[in-house]
Amino acid sequence: MNTVKTLRDLRAAVAQARAEGKQIGFVPTMGNLHAGHVSLVETAVQRADFVVASIFVNPLQFGAGEDLASYPRTLAADQEKLLAAGCHLLFHPDVAEIYPHGMADQTRVIVPGVSEGLCGASRPGHFEGVATVVTKLFNMVQPDLAVFGEKDYQQLAVIRALVHDLNMPIQIIGAPTQRAEDGLALSSRNGYLDAAQRAAAPALYRSLQGIASELQRGARDYPRLIETAQRQQRDAGFVPDYLEIRNALSLRPAQLDDRQLVVLTAAHLGSTRLIDNLLVELPVQ
Ligand code: PAF
Fold this sequence. Notes:
By secondary structure, the chain is α/β, with parallel strands linked by helices. It has 10 helices and 9 strands.
């Protein structure tokens, strides 16, 4: 697996793979890779002949006071994991390669609708930063398909919308959330948790499971379900940010007759903000 840092070297390597008739798969990441990222690369390897991963901690998607400076940079370990997962090429650009004229004058991509509410409300500008960098990376790599984790459910919806709205010929594949044995969704930010917080953290997923089983039993009083689950989060030491029941396809607030639902949450444990979600498919009545 080669690592390239410039757009010129990236384009040359991808052009060679294309000339060999290969389908190009792409997995964008911010590095500090864990088993969740590895599963995204493995999914890409199953579906494409030549897999490009990127590692770029994108300053444009971090707000003031967020963890841009402290976000873990673990290149050597990441390269080993990518190689073992079957990745063919790593694109690891510097900030100046992606934003050569700085960020203030950078053309931005805004995806209305699905970007609003949830993490879009808690992290103003976040999805604009994600949509902008992903659009740039897509134009740089020009993949046939790209794989994103369902763990970042709203992000996946934003990417699907931008590819559709901007007529990009890229197939977007969502890969299931990978979890630790105790249910905690794998995330680079889990590394910020101390031992006591790590022990408490699975309560976030349990709060979603509680709502899911109530919904399966026929409960439809969404505000009451949310209140109970947020109480469980608080009891475990979380400070809830949001917890919402939405239509899994449109991401609009769930209606009483919706059958495909997603329960999404974000909550703070100490200074660490964790997110999770759970799809709930209800039987047609
Ligand atoms: O999910 C991530 O790691 C990032 O938001 C992404 C998609 C790589 C864009 O910077």
